Amino acid sequence: MISQKKAPYLVIAALFALGILMPFVIKKYHLNMLTEIIVFALYAVSYNLLLGYAGLLSFGHAMFFGMGAFTVAVSLIHIPGLSIWNAVLIALVLTTAVGFITGGFLLRHKGAYFALLTLAFNSLFYAVATKWHKITGGDDGLSITRPDLHLGFTTIKMAALTNFYYVTLVVLGAAIVFCWYFTKTAMGQTVLLMRENEERMKFLGYNTNISRLILFTFTGALAGLAGAFYTLHFQFVSQSAISVDMTTTVLLMTFVGGTGTFWGPILGAFVYIIVQNYLSDITDRWPLFMGLIFILMVLLIPGGLSQIILSIRDLFSGKRRAGKQAAAEEPSS
Amino acid sequence: MTEYLQVQDIHKDFSGLKVLTGVNFAVREKKRHAIIGPNGAGKTTLFNIISGRFRASSGSILFRGQDISAKPAHVLNRQGVSRSFQITNVFQELTVLENIRSGVRSRNGMRYNFFRKPGNHPRISERTEAIAEEVGLKEVMHMPVNALSYGQQRALEIAITLSTEPELILLDEPTAGMTREETSQAIRMIDRVTAGRTLVIIEHDMDVVFSLADTISVLHYGKILVSDTPDLIRNDQRVKDAYLGEE
Q1: Given CB atoms, is B220 within the 8 Å cutoff of chain A?
Q2: Least confident of A9-18, A69-78, A314-323
Q3: Between residues 10 and 69 of chain A, which touch chain B (CB distance below 8 Å)?
Q4: ipTM for the complex shown
Q5: What is the model's pLDDT at position B33?
Q6: Using CB atoms, which residue from B82, B107, B143 is nearest to A203?
Q7: Which residues of A touch B106 (CB under 8 A)?
Q8: How far is CA A160 from the centre of its chain?
Q9: What pTM did the predictor assign?
């Protein structure tokens, strides 16, 4: 029998194997979509570390995503011969720094004030991206060409989608796996405990302000990494990458998938991108239908798709369910 | 001789409401000191100030000769001060093990580590288990807190307080809301786990106070009325008038 501890690693290995096989199975159009899904999966996972794990509702996550996206484009345009790695690295360093500095201002406040401040900061970054035409291209956006990947012994042509898909799968896949691992580590657990009872954590020697700042910076850097690959994927970036719409997108992905599990937002990104693609093929008014779907989802299943899946699983394993109920009913008796 | 814990002329106003009006007392190392007083005397406020939750309006607190009155709670905890709460203040959704481990790993420097899992650390696991055993919660270690009885939750409150290996332990009414039997059990447990450490305890239950404390301070309307040994406190006319006599 497979031990409980090893089971997640087997799932991860299976998903990677599936990912490696995909280019042989699906059409280019769908591979394009899958690459986009991986990018948004990391973006949503990073957002859920804030929302689901730390209980911080941010309306400014797109400022990191957009910052990462623009940094890659701007550095590839202005620094000749820059490699993909270094472009991504610059984006990571910059979003980390921005996360640390903005976090220092934002995290002085909690709850609704924090949420409104993140919205204000996001709008500020959006305004800069729109007005600083010389650097960001303003309304026109910036076009780039993916540089080839030099590995020393060989060069991989990045113009081919399949090759870029593999790089995305490995790099962003590893980042998502690290996020999952992170939730089990001391810091990940600290974040959870703080959401449960921040007051008590202070009396156990935890500096809760620093903890929150570290988490905020970390999730900002992850969103920046996703943003960097967003630009590399589309070979184009415009101000929409840093707009409040991009924050709403990640918020909806996370809610559709469910904030209660680690993998919920990944599922959310998957469903969101697919539904969006098919709806936009059918009608130009796709945002209207997306909106209706989300309203219904939040009203009817606030726990998201992952809640439905967990309920179905519980239905099939009656034992687990009975155990849970017993635990829940005991204190009231 | 400098005292281990010295509270000097502590005042606390809450927007005009004077809760503490010059509190003075001292605690010797490895002694047990009880603070008693009627409801609203300011006992918990005093604890909130010593443990770094609030800052005093004026006055100072010396811990091992060092002024700690301006230090935040997490810094004080790292220096060896740990407190419990009158209203159970634990991590309700988590298991007993996770609750106790939160402090044990903090003490072992595993607060913000991005790579290591606290559950894989043998010293942390051993210590967590040992503390659970000390307070009598070893059998329920893997149960979520909200499945525990009230008495067990109070024991967990103390276990978490002990989890950072404090030198100075502050217990705020550890037996609040307990039955007689639970209380006497709790006293024995507190007596056991605080052996060899300095304890300051707030308590309403006179049985608890007189069986545990080496010295007692009576807090009355924001001031210490008298500090002395249990025998002398029991026979002090001022205390009888102010507090004991009213019961």
Answers
A1: no
A2: A314-323
A3: none
A4: 0.91
A5: 94
A6: B82
A7: 204-206
A8: 25
A9: 0.89
